[in-house]
Amino acid sequence: MKTRILLIFFLTLIAAPLWAQQPVKLVDNTGTDVPLATTTEGQHDVALTPASTKALLDMCRASTATPSSVSADDDAVLAWCLRDGRRVVTTIDPCNSEVKSSTAISQTARTVIVTATASKKTYICSLVLVATAAEIVSVLEGTGTTCQTSTVAIAGSTTAANGMSLAINGVLSVSGNGSTLLAGTGTNVDVCLVPSGSGRVTGWVTWVQK
């Protein structure tokens, strides 16, 4: 009995690699082979559409460069893998992928610097501030008049005196270098620059909403 069990175990070990490494061919709903090497975009989409495949396959195309976008929403998509088979997982940063907007800043009181857009969050890509007098500033988001309702601090503090201190003619210049510098926490909310005093603060902000 022990000998039989050992023999079955041994045969399983040597057979597993054989069936595990068998090639898988892709066929459309008529059973026609669709070789990946010669596939047209149309054949590729038909072959990988769940309604027309005989099995759900998780495949990827080896590439050392980022694959280009597909041409339509119903196009089939192959994952991006390196040549050694590792799947590449990418995170798209809005400040890197979206068209940026800029807003000039020149204020002596709390002011909206980015206006809310329905269902979208604001991402600050860069911020430059120059204070003509010693000032404490914060970047807040919220609703109502100049972010005074449901207020959340995304830089500094909701308490004016606890924000970021700027000396006379002090400069704050920060950038995400192509990535997000400050990410909003909510959607459909304004972004405001809030000083603790009445000194003039000038500069600009670049941002995207998504």
Characterization of this structure:
The structure is a single chain. This protein starts with a helix and ends with a strand. Strands 3, 5, 9, 10 and 12 form a five-stranded antiparallel beta sheet that branches. It is of the alpha+beta class. It has two domains: 2-81, no CATH class; 94-209, Jelly Rolls (Sandwich), CATH 2.60.120. 15% of the residues lie in helices and 35% in strands. The chain is elongated and about 60 Å long. Strand 6 (135-143) and strand 7 (149-155) form a beta hairpin.
The ordered H/E elements are HHEEHEEEEEEEEEE
**What's the tally of helices?**
3
Please tell me the total number of domains: 2
Average pLDDT, rounded to a whole number, is 77
Distance between the termini: 66 Å
What characterizes the major β-sheet? 5 strands, antiparallel
Structural class: alpha+beta
Shape: elongated
Helix-strand layout with pairing:
Elements (H helix, E strand, L loop, with lengths): L1 H19 L20 H8 L11 E3 L16 E3 L12 H4 L3 E7 L3 E4 L6 E11 L3 E9 L5 E7 L8 E3 L4 E5 L6 E6 L2 E6 L5 E9 L1
Parallel strand pairs: 1-2
Antiparallel strand pairs: 3-12, 4-11, 5-9, 5-10, 5-12, 6-7, 6-8, 6-11
Which terms would index this structure?
5-stranded antiparallel sheet, 35% strand, 210 residues, 12 strands, 2 domains, elongated, Jelly Rolls, alpha+beta, 3 helices
